[in-house]
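Please study the protein below:
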Amino acid sequence: MTFTIHQASAPVFARTLGNLSAMLDKALAGGADEATLLAARLAPDMHPLPRQIQMASDSAKGAIARLAGVDVPVMEDTETTFAELKDRLARTIAFVNSVEAAAFDGAEDREVVLKFPQGEMTFTGADYLTSFVLPNFFFHVTIAYALLRANDVAVGKMDFLAGAR
């Protein structure tokens, strides 16, 4: 059996976003101050925790949609509480899981064009996933994890990797 674009993306996004949601639960259960965490940044020029989670969500849902040839779900970036962030993560996971594996047939060769104010980036589906989306997705998830750790939330490597086989 051939390893597919779907296998390399959807389960990875769903599991990792679920782990991120569980880390938010762990922060609150451990008595962390939600307001402090929501304002946390690793450096003054970096985005705070909510934006890191929003960008991880955007990376996952955008990748799934582009690779499967469907519309990217719109989610406003208005989350200001852990409950709202967890809802966004749940909606992103639901979308990721809703796209049938068959929709990814041919995705490795599908052209993906990203438009930015500075110009465009064009990829094949395989290059888009492996050289752009996965690094970007894991960057934002890792920053969110680091923000929790830096603010004394008792999360560790196995919280990040939970569900890995």
Summary: The chain is about 60% helix and 5% strand. The chain has a mean pLDDT of 96. The CA atoms of residues 44 and 147 lie 13 Å apart. The longest helix spans residues 125-150.
